[in-house]
Amino acid sequence: MTTTAPAIPVNHVDPFSPEVLEDPLPFQHALREAGPVVHLAQHDVYAMGRYEHVRAALVDWQRFPSGAGVGLANWRYEKPWRPPSLLLETDPPHHDAPRAVLAPILSPRALRRLREQWCTEAETLVDEVLASGPEVDAMSTLAEAFPLRVFPDAVGIPREGREHLLPYGDHLFNAFGPENALVAKGAPTLPEHAGWVNAQCARDRLAEGGFGAQIWAAADRGDITPEQAPLVVRSLLSAGVDTTVHGLGACLSAMATHPEQWARLRAQPGLARVAFDEAVRWESPVQTFFRIADVDVSVGGTVVPEGRKILMFLGSANHDPRRWDAPDVFDLDRDPSGHVGFGMGLHQCVGQHVARLEAEALLTALARRVERIAPAGTPRRHHNNTMRGWESLPVRLVPAV
Ligand code: OW4
Fold this sequence. Notes:
By secondary structure, the protein is an alpha+beta fold. A hairpin with a 4-residue loop joins strand 2 and strand 3 (45-48). The termini are far apart. The chain has a five-stranded mixed β-sheet, with helices on both faces. Helix 5 (108-131) runs antiparallel to helix 6 (138-155). It has 16 helices and twelve strands. Residues 85, 87-88, 172, 234-235, 238-239, 286 line the site of 3-(methylamino)benzoic acid (OW4).
């Protein structure tokens, strides 16, 4: 008797093409249906789209490490475009000291001192936006404006130059994908954005008491080296803005298209955090990250060969009907915990409590003042090789009386 390994399913669609970025759900459905592991012919990499296997691979950092980069480029053969992140793009043991320094700085307990201030800032912003007229673009006026108002202050960077943050992050997230038109479009201005971002990581740029100064204080204690400190600050400026912008955008678009869910949140504002996590599950602002197979790894009977990149579809896992009832429905009655929108395992988003606090502040302020968030025009998708979100979200804010 002869035994042959089952042939691996092949998919010829480019997941980074404009068509898939416009609406990734049909591609992700096909990916999940094809099997636990699929070969993506366009990029000659492997992919996983089912919750069970994505989750298992994310927690298996030994066999699926991040040190060869979490983008398409395989750093065993290619040079990284910037010095690797000490958090995202490293494995234990190197990963552990930077993570141990940053986690308590961004912990729920440490963030308590920001809560009142951020709620006040959110109320001020919502009042300004309501005064500006009933029809607004919810992306620029709320989803972008709020994080840009509170987060850089919390890090402790100066006001001047903050307009570099979003384009820097947008390019960084594009750069995890292939060198397509999205990357080419960002390349010419990257040096200005990266130059500014890197300059803000120096000790003397960072205001006393902020996240940045606390990272430098950890270097003074010897918990990380003075060479590591600026790169840990860089992680905040890299991962902390665009992600929350698109998370908030997902909340606002969900509420605009599900008025009954907005009514539910208004009746019970304590659901703000559930609403945010459900939006992170539903939209999955960070759609994908790669890992590398450090050895031949068998996944559901198919082998991912040693040294090869594998694309983990967080968004697909968060819409897997094997794990979620009616996954495409945004529903405050479900328990979204266990979603992989923040990743899972030892790299799971260290900033998630910051994001949840921003969302709670903004949603609570809106719930108090806004009766209805009504669609007021055709929303436009923002295309990015890694992030899913909106470029424009026209809404009419109906004030509560
Ligand atoms: C989602 C993330 C994303 C981009 C950059 C970094 C982290 C970083 N996490 O550490 O620089």
